[in-house]
Write a structure and sequence with these properties.
By secondary structure, this protein is an alpha/beta fold. The protein has two domains: about 10-255 and about 455-475, Aldehyde Dehydrogenase, Chain A, domain 1, CATH 3.40.605; about 255-445, Aldehyde Dehydrogenase, Chain A, domain 2, CATH 3.40.309.10. The protein is built from 15 helices and 20 strands. The strands form five sheets. The protein has a seven-stranded mixed β-sheet with strand order 14-15-16-13-12-17-18, with helices on both faces. α5 (about 160-170) links the parallel β7 (about 145-150) and β8 (about 175). α2 packs antiparallel against α5 and α4 (about 100-120) packs parallel to α5 (about 160-170). The longest helix has 22 residues, at about 100-120. It starts with 9 loop residues before the first strand and ends with a strand.
Length: about 475
């Protein structure tokens, strides 16, 4: 199936800017290794123009009522739904994920805009009774100001929309730097906001050398809030830059999600549920299940069912019917997968399924299952961000909780049990921002999404995601 990609441009102060006179880079289709388009980079002058536009746009947007802001946002959500087929195909071409996953991502992105559009109208303050007669005490929430947002390549539409919709609902203006490797999804998303009538300067889209863009934007006095999704090392760097200016920051960083399958769970049913989730987007998901601890009683059954699922996955171009897993997004991930498998083998690990590259074009890696691996191996200690599932047995609750909590990560976790007592105990003991118990539904528009420990701080989604873009002001009036 061949389909049109998109025209890649910057969007600054209500104008689309192409590559004339600007540096650029190639955007690659990971299924074929071929160039899709050239992406223009923002110059320093472009970044300064975006800062000036966002500062001006903030004044306009902040002055607009939450009711009127909501109408524009809902129009953008409707446009995204109307265009979902095209946007999903653009995204699949640049990122590699299969079309049904892309389609769901785009439709969920529209739901996120709708949810925030409504929640922005409910950002209420409160009156606190005074201690002295005649004193009125008022707490109000106000938009923080200009937001600089940075998003990665694994969810080209969903990750940008979480930041854009949350900021806009709060009354903030935004400069977003989406991933240079998967820019088309965000270009199409921004088009929906522009076509919905968002005032000039309220939303600006730039691309460039990530370190240069982030330093320039975060270093500017115009920017009051930073939101970043990506790796822990980069997150720490950007958090440090934000701290220099005492800027509010939300950091959604890496994870290494443990899965605990307890003795009272059905191991085959658990395998069916979690295997499908594991290989979504070829495992390139920050909340992907990545360390599987299965009680020794059900271990063999779980491994057998999980391995069977992995072997039946059909690899191929995400736009081809019948494909159930696409390529990895870039060659760096291929090298990382080979390194992980080689390390596991060197430590006595067994490859139950997959374990190597697939085909001679594109960035494909087989869905892989590893067993008999020690806890200090690379796959058990470093975020894999790929289609590799290590499965190991455990004996007791205390033992598995200690192993699950042993790393510096704390984003997501999963558990399977038929005991409410065990479920409660896991919920209490796990060091994680989110946990799904007999469920993988831990990311919805109306619920908080974020981690603890080195997986970051702050939340996206839910009322917490709106509050992240607000300042609290207390007014005491006699």
């Amino acid at each position: 199936m061949s389909t049109a990609y998109t025209d890649l441009k910057l969007y600054i102060d209500g104008k689309w800017l192409n590559g004339e006179g600007r540096k650029s880079e190639d955007v690659i289709n990971p299924a074929t290794g071929k160039v899709l388009a050239k992406l223009p980079h923002a110059s320093k002058a472009d970044l300064d123009a975006a800062l000036a536009a966002a500062e001006k746009g903030f004044k306009v947007w902040k002055a607009m009522s939450a009711y009127d802001r909501s109408k524009i946002m809902r129009k953008a959500a409707d446009l995204l739904r109307e265009r979902h087929d095209h946007v999903a195909k653009v995204q699949t071409q640049e990122q590699g994920k299969v079309y049904p996953e892309s389609r769901m991502e785009v439709l969920t992105s529209a739901d996120i805009i709708d949810w925030y559009a409504e929640e922005g109208r409910r950002s209420y303050g409160r009156i606190v009774p005074g201690r002295v007669k005649g004193v009125r005490q008022i707490v109000v929430q106000e938009p923080v100001g200009v937001v600089a947002a940075f998003t990665p390549w694994n969810f080209p539409t969903l990750t940008p929309v979480r930041k854009i919709a949350g900021a806009l609902a709060a009354g903030c203006s935004v400069i977003i730097k989406a991933s240079e490797e998967t820019p088309g999804g965000c270009v199409e998303l921004v088009k929906c906001f522009a076509d919905a009538g968002l005032p000039e300067g309220v939303l600006n889209l730039v691309f460039g050398v990530p370190a240069e863009v982030s330093e320039h934007l975060i270093g500017s006095e115009v920017v009051k809030k930073v939101s970043f999704t990506g790796s822990i090392p980069v997150g720490k760097l950007l958090a440090g830059l934000a701290a220099k200016g005492m800027k509010k920051a939300t950091m959604e960083l890496g994870g290494h999600s443990p899965v605990m399958v307890f003795a009272d769970a059905d191991p085959e049913k658990a395998a069916d549920t979690i295997a499908a989730f594991k290989y979504r987007n070829a495992g390139q998901v920050c909340i992907s299940p990545t360390r599987f601890y299965v009680h020794e009683n059900g271990y063999n059954k779980f491994v057998a069912r999980f391995t069977e699922y992995a072997k039946n996955i059909k690899l191929g171009d995400g736009l081809e019917k019948g494909t159930t897993m696409g390529p990895l997004a870039n060659p760096r991930r291929l090298d990382a997968m080979e390194s992980i498998v080689n390390d596991a083998k060197a430590r006595g690990g067994k490859v139950a399924a997959g374990g190597s590259r697939h085909g001679n074009q594109g960035f494909f890696f087989q869905p892989t299952v590893l067993t008999d691996i020690p806890d200090d191996s690379k796959i058990m200690t470093q975020e894999p961000f790929g289609p590799i599932a290590p499965i190991v047995p455990f004996k007791t609750f205390d033992e598995v909780m200690e192993r699950a909590n042993s790393l510096e990560f704390g984003l997501a976790a999963y558990a399977f049990t038929n005991s409410s007592a065990t479920a409660n105990a896991v919920g209490d003991a796990i060091e994680s921002g989110m946990i799904g118990i007999n469920s993988v539904a831990i990311s919805t528009p109306e619920t908080p999404f974020g981690g603890v420990k080195e997986s970051g701080y702050g939340s996206e989604g839910g009322i917490e995601g709106l509050e992240a873009y607000m300042n609290v002001k207390f007014i005491s009036q006699a």
